[in-house]
Design goal:
The protein is α+β, with helices and mostly antiparallel strands. It is 42% helix and 25% strand.
Length: 171
């Protein structure tokens, strides 16, 4: 159990043992959050340039870029630390959320195919994203980002049906 989890978060009333994402997942999410949110004040630069002048507009824009990057990185790290998953006999359960918990149940019978994705940040940190494509749902692809590469491969193999059309439970 991590320092951020309480017993209520890690074990459901039904006795499910939730797994946490590795620490590297929070680092990757922080980097992605910082990079994706730092551009937010850029469109306002033109307005500030016209009203305040060049040097003031540059200073304000750079300060807001830093603030947005820090807040975006912090938010994504915090959100990623709250992701839990469990591989059960019926399929995969994913629980995530900061204020409101959202739990996704992916029955094995609905799994169409599985993909592993590794972006440059994930590759550098030894992580992967498991993408589970399902049938007959409004969310036809569910992503579980921030898994260790070996764990992502094991989950993918466990959710794939074997020769008999039945998924393996040995993970």
């Amino acid at each position: 159990m991590s320092e951020h989890a309480t017993p209520e978060e890690t074990t459901a009333p039904t006795g499910i043992d939730w797994e946490h994402l590795p620490t590297n997942a929070a680092h990757a999410a922080g980097i992605v959050g910082a990079l994706s949110s730092c551009w937010l004040p850029a469109p306002l630069f033109t307005l500030w340039y016209a009203l305040l002048g060049r040097s003031t507009a540059i200073a304000i824009t750079l300060a807001l870029i830093v603030v947005c990057a820090v807040v975006g990185g912090w938010w994504n790290r915090r959100r990623t630390r709250r992701v839990r998953y469990a591989l059960l006999g019926e399929g995969l359960r994913i629980r995530r959320g900061l204020c409101f918990w959202h739990e996704i149940v992916l029955p094995r019978s609905r799994v169409q195919h599985l993909d592993l994705e590794r972006g440059p940040i994930e590759r550098h940190l030894g992580l992967a994203t498991l993408v589970i494509h399902t049938a007959g749902t409004r969310m036809n692809a569910v992503r579980l980002a921030g898994l260790n590469e070996q764990r992502a491969l094991a989950l993918r193999d466990a959710l794939l049906p074997n020769e008999n059309g039945v998924s393996d439970d040995a993970v």
